[in-house]
Model the fold of this input.
Amino acid sequence: MYLNKINLFLVISVCLVIFFLTYNDVKSFEIKIIDGDTIHLDGEKIRFTGIDTPELSQECSKNNETILCGVEARNLLIKKIGKNEVKCVREGKDQYKRTLAECFVNNLSLSSYLVRKGYAFAYRKYSKKFIEDEDYARLNNLGMWSMKFEYPWDYRKKN
Done:
């Protein structure tokens, strides 16, 4: 009887330790989506490598309607991440001291997803990785490819 109480106590203790460790991990996971290609993950500013999304203030047009394509890109990212855990593979730092990384949700590259949906572009100046995704979106008239738009790098030069 005495050993059964000790075993029960040990099992309960181990379960409580596991619960609190898991609980703290969930509570410490904080994500803030800045725009289509920049997030803050647990306070670290991360810029997605190999892609470029429109600026939040950037407008596109379709059927004489103005669309905030930068906001659309961010909203697409917010929806895709949802309450899922984001994992990033860090690749270095950029000139603004942001961490450069490719980030994933459920093993799906967020960069590939955004480009394939037509709300990001393969940033050929820095990478050739997402060109096939961009070709798919362009050929299927997805996202910004169905609109009149300015490439984000051209927009930034003017504004």
Q: What stands out?
A: The longest helix spans residues 2-28. Residues 14-28 have pLDDT under 50 and may be disordered. Residues 2-158 form a domain with the OB fold (Dihydrolipoamide Acetyltransferase, E2P) fold (CATH 2.40.50.90). The chain has five helices and ten strands.
